[in-house]
Amino acid sequence: MAEPGFRPDGTWVGADVPRREDPRLLTGRGRFVDDLTLPRMLHAAFVRSSEAHARITGLDLSEVREVPGVVAAFDAADLGLADITALLDRPAEEFTPTAMPVLARDRVRYAGEPLAVVVATDPYAAEDGVEAAIVEYDPLDPVVTEATALAAAGTPVHEEAPGNVLVDVSLFATEGIDDVFASAAASSDDVVVTVEANTGRQNALPLETRGVVADWDDRDEQLVVRTCTQVPHQVRTVLARCAGLDEKQVRVTVPDMGGGFGQKCVVGREEIAAAAAARRLRRPVKWIEDRREALTASFLAREQHYTARAAFSGDGTILALDVDVVCDMGAYSCYPFTAGIEPLMASAEMPGVYRLPSYRVRGRAVTTNKAPTAPYRGVSRPQYVMVMERLMERAARELDLDPLDVRRRNLITEFPYRGINNVTYDPGSYLESLNLCEQVLRDEGWLSRGGPDRDGRVIGIGYSCFSERTGYGSGAFAQRKMQVVPGFDLSQITMDLNGTVTVTTGTLSHGQSHETTFAQIVADRLGVDYDKVKIVQGDTDRVTYGWGSFASRSVTIGGSAASAAAVKLCDQLCSLAAHLAGVDIDSTGLDGHGGVRAGDRTFTFAELADVAYLKAHLLPKDVGPGLTATASFDVGGDGTFSNATHGCVVALDPGTGGVEILRYVCVEDCGVAIHPRVVEGQARGGIAQGIAGALFEQVTYDELGQPLAPSFMEYKVPTAAEIPDVRIEHLETPCAFTANGAKGAGEGGTIGAPAAVLNAVNDALRPTGVELDATPIPRSAIFAALSPEVTR
Which of 186, 284, 593, 692 is deepest in the core (most CB within 10 A)? Predict the structure, then answer.
């Protein structure tokens, strides 16, 4: 019988141990930004633009300052902050930089853009102050859609981008690709299929909205900012630059955080303005985003348009792919990723799990008078996977082949594989995951079900195969030519007198259980109980540097850095034990129970720490006191790839056009799962968000650029009733170059779900001849396709 918490082989990695975060989070003892209260604290609210596009001809805050409880009101001139500017090192024809002012000055570019900050003794007085602001506008024609943006009619969103295009890149164009398409079109056996797909604008919708509590510390002469961000060091950098401070004068800390999903991995304007107000007033200032602000004025994502065509041979082999990608990025580039984040991701990785001999792609980011876009769980991959999977389905239909056989013919099966996109894929289980997913649905009896069910609903089954590039290193980000290049992570480990260790990480948990999984990794390296490991994150004064958490990089990169630091500490402990025992270091080793064997002696960690701190005279002459080690980790090459296949069974109601998901199967391979239940939680949550995008969620605007979904009455979010039970099957292909064989699991659920749901709906609609290529899938289109007038 294995010890409690251990796997049979006696390791912590892979064990389903109790999550260390749970006791406080599940009993209401978590501490979030809105829980923080400081003496003399003030509250902030923002005057926001009522126009989507206009010149500001007047901004009068005089009456605001007369409102009872209002302490101050600041506009852009009052605060004097520098702009936030994200840059790519690309030529002018490929990238146009645009500055995002912390508070709008002369012009507003989306409804909800902040113009001024009101600071008061309580949130209600601050809101009253906002109502008293007088703003005068000279309205301009808003650019609301991709089509109007590209038409460049009317006043451009930014004068420096008269065509409303911020990014225009053609990363790949295989020589002779036009001949491949011409030959396929002329052949009686081959086919050319097209897909024109649109995906709706979404909100990442973390349970906890954005917020900040900022205070100027006179003793340390430091601006202390407590905020819910995925990237505290980037917030520090931007705040320091905007306010003209040295970085040592800014400390950013992150308490518990209720989700981020990418929306919080960019630097927002409101946090900077609130912190600047706190510095001016020398009093703490709190701002908590309300849900209306979150739905209309926060960072959004996902609005993309794909025009794709692919040539297939008669046996279903893909011959060529030609894609035009247009991403509506809203009014501004986000920091640090820029407006290129979505079109560059789609362009570089669209071939995905398939062997592709010829490829051409153009990716564009257009700017419109809507709230700006930030990364959201998956970042373009849910969209381009949907397009690739629709192409596979359409080719199978045109060629009268089984859609799964078409996929099998094209899946990458030999690794490492160097793709047409100049990306090297490390070993994965692409074919195995597809086969197992089909087998699970077959064993459950779904593949034998045909025709309507007993309620008259139409049944359909859909699949999606995909990979998730995780653990992006500096080299991968450098390929995008970002001026700010993320990638590496740093970790420091310190052992105290009791033999317990404190480990810093530059990643940041916002629901991924870092306090548990990182402790498991370090515990294995040291041979101690995972309760002996404390994780420190989210504090720019205690963590040397870090890029935060996004792109499934936490365990792959942050965990590898923590592992490397633990190995260095092990070396120190063994070296000290060898010195004390008078033996060669080759005669030492960890005993697996919190100690070091040295020859015929064994020293506990506490005994070694006692010498390192309290008996320094016993140390070797060239060794200083203490037990601390620091290590970094950066993935070389193109990173690693998790993969999965999703299978979805739906029932369509002819009477309403409604979609019910009857069964959902996910076969995933994220390499070594540090904590299997955490991985399953990530997959289930991601699938729920993917289903939300496939069937429900969409941010819409009217022709004047006014948001039409300012509350949950209009923005449709699925409940537990709409999300099915998900069966998850695990495969394990360890990564060769991360410390624990892990590949990353944060985004896969979201990536695969939209394609699987859409393909299932189209499978159910097959007898009608109707095919849908947009999400969220319109219920009206399903109803029309299944109505007697259409199907008769």
Answer: 692
Q: Which pLDDT belongs to residue 471?
A: 84
**Helix-then-strand count for the chain, H and E:** 20, 33
**Hey, which residues does 172 pair with through a beta bridge?**
361
Q: Rounded to 5 degrees, what angle do the CA atoms 233, 235, 238 make? A: 110
Q: How many CA atoms lie within 13 Å of 598's alpha carbon, on the beta-carbon side?
A: 23
Task: Annotate 673-715 with DSSP letters as a single string.
Answer: -SSHHHHHHHHHHHHHHHHHHHHT----B-TTS-BS--STTTS
Length of the chain: 792
Which of 759, 760, 645, 781 has the alpha carbon at shortest distance from 390?
Answer: 759
Beta-bridge mates of residue 731: 669
Q: Are strands 285-288 and 42-48 parallel, antiparallel or unpaired?
A: parallel
Q: Residue written as tokens 């650029």?
A: 705
Contacts of 654 (CB under 8 A, 6+ apart): 456, 457, 458, 783, 786, 787
pLDDT attached to residue 792: 37
CA 630/CA 783 separation, integer angstroms = 61
The Cα 748–Cα 126 span in angstroms is 41
Predicted local distance difference test score (pLDDT) of residue 454? 78
Interval 158-194: pLDDT, tens: 999 999 999 999 999 999 999 999 999 999 999 999 9
What are the CB-based long-range contacts (under 8 Å, 24+) for 441-448? 441/647, 441/649, 441/663, 441/665, 444/663, 446/649, 446/663
Q: Is 178 exposed, middle or buried (0-12, 13-18, 19+ CB in 10 A)?
A: middle
Residue numbers in the chain where pLDDT is lower than 50: 1-6, 790-792
Candidates 500, 372, 439, 337; CA nearest to 52 is 372
Three-state DSSP at 286 gives: strand
- pLDDT for residue 7: 55
The whole-angstrom separation of Cα 747 and Cα 242 is 32
In the numeric block, the tokens 């979010």 are attached to: 717
Three-class DSSP category at 83: coil
Would you give the distance in Å from CA 700 to the centre of its chain? 22
- Cα 17 to the chain's mean position, in Å? 26
Q: Do 337 and 86 meet the contact criterion of CB atoms below 8 Å apart?
A: yes
781 closest CA partner among 689, 654, 649, 693: 654
Count of alpha carbons within 13 angstroms of residue 467, beta-carbon side: 31
Alpha helices in 69-204 (DSSP H): 76-79, 123-132, 146-151, 177-186
Angstrom distance (rounded) from CA 636 to CA 516: 27
| Angstrom distance (rounded) from CA 585 to CA 597 | 10
Q: Record the tokens describing residue 698, joined without a space.
A: 């969409």
Q: For residues 399 and 395, what is the distance between their CA atoms, to the nearest angstrom?
A: 6
Give the residue carrying structure tokens 């979609």.
659
Distances (CA, A) of 145 to 148, 149, 328, 578, 773: 5, 6, 8, 70, 18
pLDDT at 788: 67
8-state DSSP, 785: H
**Is residue 327 within 8 Å of residue 363, measured between CB atoms?**
yes
Task: Say which amino acid occupies 542.
Answer: R
The answer to whether the beta carbons of residues 334 and 372 sit under 8 Å apart is yes
* 3-state SS assignment for residue 626: coil
Q: Tell me the C-alpha to C-alpha distance, in Å, between residue 440 and each of 178, 407, 452, 749, 753.
A: 41, 18, 22, 18, 17
